[in-house]
Amino acid sequence: MKSLNFLFQEDRQALQRAYQELRFQHTSLLIVLSVGLISGLVWGTNQLLHVRIQQLDDEIQSTQQTELVQQTTAAESKVREFNTLVKFFSEETELIFPLSDRVAEISKIIPTGIKVDQLSLNMNAKQLTLAGSASNRDSYLSLRDALANTGWFESVELPITDLLSRENIRFTLQTDLTDEFFNISK
């Protein structure tokens, strides 16, 4: 089959050039539109990413601040607890160290012939307990007199059973402490 060609060669070439120009313009326009569309998508995505990054930064900062507040609160609680302990030990040692001086004073007034095996202070009951041995009854009576003369004890009474022996007396002596015992000048 043959086609009929009603156009002249020149007209036909002009139409082909016009068609090619239109195709080129159309392709160029599509490329420009595609580049514009892609650029818009990239820009929009970039903006969304910046917003999301800012939100994540805010969340991280808020979480860090919350954790920091919790850690600070816990640390402050530990410091208060430590300060309470320091205060307690400070108050206790104010009494304990001078009392060790008082115990040293007691050891100085113990007469010859007395061997003390145990000396204990019961601060709650305000009592002193001495346990040991006396070489003889006179030494034991001298111990009673020496303790009574200090004014630190309510009364120093010796158990009658301890006084029955003349020598090698094992004793446990318990006496109440007076307020004067605790009146220690610094």
Strand content: 15-25%
Report, as a whole number of angstroms, the end-to-end distance.
135 Å
Structural class category: alpha+beta
How many helices? The count is 4
Q: How many extended strands?
A: 3
Strand order of the largest sheet: 1-2-3
Descriptive report:
The protein has 186 residues and is an alpha+beta fold. The protein is built from four helices and three strands, in the order αββααβα. It has helices at residues 9-109, 137-150, 160-163, 179-182, and strands at 114-122, 127-136, 167-176. It has a three-stranded antiparallel sheet with strand order 1-2-3. A hairpin with a 4-residue loop joins strand 1 and strand 2 (127-136). The chain is rod-shaped and about 160 Å long. It starts with 8 loop residues before the first helix and ends with a helix. The mean pLDDT is 82.
Detail the topology: elements first, then pairings.
Layout: H1 9-109, E1 114-122, E2 127-136, H2 137-150, H3 160-163, E3 167-176, H4 179-182
Antiparallel strand pairs: 1-2, 2-3
